[in-house]
Specification:
The complex is a heterodimer of chains A (479) and B (102). By secondary structure, chain A is of the alpha+beta class. Chain A folds into 3 domains: 292 residues, no CATH class; 112 residues, no CATH class; 58 residues, Orthogonal Bundle (Arc Repressor Mutant, subunit A), CATH 1.10.10.410. In chain A, 40% of the residues lie in helices and 20% in strands. Chain B is mainly α and 102 residues long. Chain B has a domain of 45 residues: Histone, subunit A (Orthogonal Bundle). Chain B contains 4 helices and 3 strands; from the N terminus they run ααβαββα. Classes of the chains: A alpha+beta (479), B mainly alpha (102). At the A-B interface, strand 2, helix 1, strand 10, strand 11 and strand 18 of A face strand 1, strand 3 and helix 4 of B.
Chain lengths: 479, 102
């Protein structure tokens, strides 16, 4: 009989904090600049330089820890993690070892309509490494590397989960929810493509029912949430095949190869004792007053989960609608601003998730550029019968592009609704005369034929007639 | 020099990317064992009730404001580069280094 295995996954997330200057020096953190221009004796580790904490980095780190329900330590310490790798100018990284900034914590995620709590091990601060560019096609066959230290020394927050995740999909959902939360705190721009949010994974398998952990493999170089899911699914299959054939998993670090869609071993994993951690002598232990931590806590915005619950309760939205409006914070802000002036909330959401999002995508605009009051104005024009639905849709596109008020657009373009027999009947008569076949079909019982005729009149009116009114008129004429 | 201790010296030398000849290894082994002996003696002290400290200074760490300051001119940044290629440090590939070592 084939053995069944449970998957055990722990994630390490690295997050570049959004500060102006680096963690220990005044060099700029601006992304995408000429190589090696944001370097100084401190981040290059030149003799005689001394690191000094960046207050903003500490504040952001504390607020993320609090948002993750992690216990911020009033006393924490920085250590040197020693290893040689060309992206590390000093030969060590200033990091935190046995006295991290925050311990424990959790994030609740929605998994198949159910709430799952993913527990955290710790949250700590460290400095970012430089960026290596490998000559040749891949890291495996390059003959030399080029180093840019602009990134070295940027404040990096490491979030470590407990081995609480059980599938690639769950890992992706966790990361998506984590990213939303992090964006709410404003601590990072979370751009995976620019490397400001990165994720490594430890994954092992164990026979169902066993409590001992299997040998784990570390997977790196996953450059999107989708890649994380794919790489972990790949590892599950690979490890399952080895274990099923009575083989042994080698503890190692693998690279996810995005082209080949497989994990490739990179180097034997050095044990943590090989890093020879010791207290960073150039930095005093970090002491945070309770008042400092309380202040960060008070400054935290409403977080996605709280907002989702409030949107459901206060506005009567369903789960899907509430999720849409919380995943995207600015879209939620837009909704709330509009909901101040318009109380049919469900209808408002329908406009936002349907036509508004579509027009935003089409025009390449962001929701921040749209005045919420304009959407309310548009919906009100429609509800009062001043314009028809097709015209409303057209106006929305115009409104998104130009930012002009729907009222003004109606006047400018003469888009007000055409109603009343004296205006509509001439159009109806013309369409009936021009489409004898459709009229005949309708008389033989084809209901659809009347819709066709309504469509023709609508086209003649430039979408300004009311379809229901038209339908009645036409049926009255030809029945 | 005890065999296991010789291995320890080799291991530490490898981590520091140092190549030591036999004489140097013997000398390092002697010095390291003296250091370890000192640490052992320090450990004999009764430290009950004394809070562990990482630093002799008891002042809290200073925080600076998040302001940028001018960085070094590029030529100064790259002046100690083993090899410079355009505005980058050029170093042997890590995989190439691995192969030479093994």
């Amino acid at each position: 009989m084939k053995m069944k295995y449970d998957t055990v996954i722990g994630l390490e997330i690295h997050l570049e904090l959004q500060t102006h200057s680096k963690l220990f020096c005044g060099c700029s953190t601006t992304f995408g600049q000429e190589p090696n221009i944001n370097c100084c004796p401190i981040c290059l580790g030149l003799p005689g330089s001394l690191p000094v904490f960046n207050r903003r980095a500490i504040e952001l780190a504390v607020s993320v820890a609090l948002a993750l329900n992690s216990a911020v330590q009033q006393k924490s310490r920085f250590d040197r993690k020693n290893y040689f790798y060309p992206d590390l100018p000093k030969g060590y990284q200033i990091s935190q070892y046995d006295q991290p900034l925050a311990r424990g914590g959790y994030l609740e995620i929605e998994f198949d309509e159910e709430s799952r709590r993913i527990n955290l091990e710790r949250v700590h601060l460290e400095e970012e490494a430089g960026k290596l560019m490998h000559a040749g096609d891949s890291i495996f066959d390059s003959s030399y590397s080029l180093v840019d230290y602009n990134r070295a020394g940027i404040a990096l927050l490491e979030i470590v989960t407990k081995p609480d995740i059980h599938s690639g999909r769950e890992a992706r959902l966790f990361l998506e929810d984590l990213r939303t939360l992090l964006l709410y705190t404003g601590a990072s721009d979370c751009k995976m493509e620019e490397g400001s949010l990165r994720c490594d994974a430890n994954i092992s398998l164990r026979p169902v029912g066993s409590t001992a952990l299997g040998t784990r493999v570390e997977v790196k170089n996953m450059n999107s949430f989708r890649a994380v899911e794919m790489a972990l699914n790949y590892e599950v299959k690979r490890q399952e095949e080895i274990l099923s054939a009575d083989g042994h998993i080698i503890q190692e670090t693998c690279h996810w190869d995005e082209e080949k869609k497989e994990t490739i071993p990179l180097r034997g994993k050095e044990g943590s004792s090989d890093y020879r951690y010791f207290p960073e002598p150039d930095l005093l232990p970090l002491t945070l007053e309770a008042s400092f931590i309380e202040k960060q806590s008070a400054l935290l915005p409403e977080l996605p989960r709280q907002r989702r619950v409030r949107f459901k309760e206060h506005y009567g939205l369903n789960g899907k609608e509430a999720t849409l409006l919380t995943e995207n914070r600015t879209l939620g802000d837009f909704f709330e601003a509009a909901a101040n002036d318009y109380s049919d909330y469900r209808n408002l959401v329908k406009w936002i998730q349907g036509d508004l999002l579509y027009q935003l995508r089409e025009s390449g605009k962001s929701v921040e550029q749209i005045e919420p009051g304009l959407l309310v104005e548009l919906i009100t024009l429609l509800n009062n019968g001043n314009i028809t639905r097709p015209v409303a849709k057209e106006l929305l596109a115009e409104m998104v592009l130009s930012g002009k008020s729907p009222h003004k657009l109606v006047q400018e373009k003469g888009l007000g609704r055409i109603s009343g027999q004296e205006k509509l009947l001439p159009l109806v008569d013309r369409v009936i005369a021009e489409n004898p076949e459709a009229v005949e079909n309708y008389r033989r019982g084809k209901e659809k034929a009347s819709a066709f005729l309504v469509g023709r009149v609508m086209a003649l009116s430039g979408g300004r007639a009311d379809p229901e009114e038209l339908s009645k008129l036409i049926k009255g004429k030809i029945s | 020099m005890a065999i296991d201790f010789a291995e320890e010296v080799d291991h530490v030398a490898h981590l520091a990317r140092l190549t030591l000849d036999w004489e140097e290894k013997v000398r390092m082994a002697e010095q390291l064992s003296k250091i370890l002996e000192t640490a052992r003696r320090v450990q004999e002290l009764d430290t009950t009730g004394i809070e562990p400290t990482a630093h002799v200074i008891t002042l809290p760490a200073v925080l600076r404001e998040d302001l940028t300051r001018p960085s070094l001119p590029l030529n100064r940044v790259l002046q100690n580069a083993p090899t410079r290629q355009k505005d980058f440090f050029r170093v042997p590939s890590i995989t190439a280094v691995k192969q030479v070592e093994e």
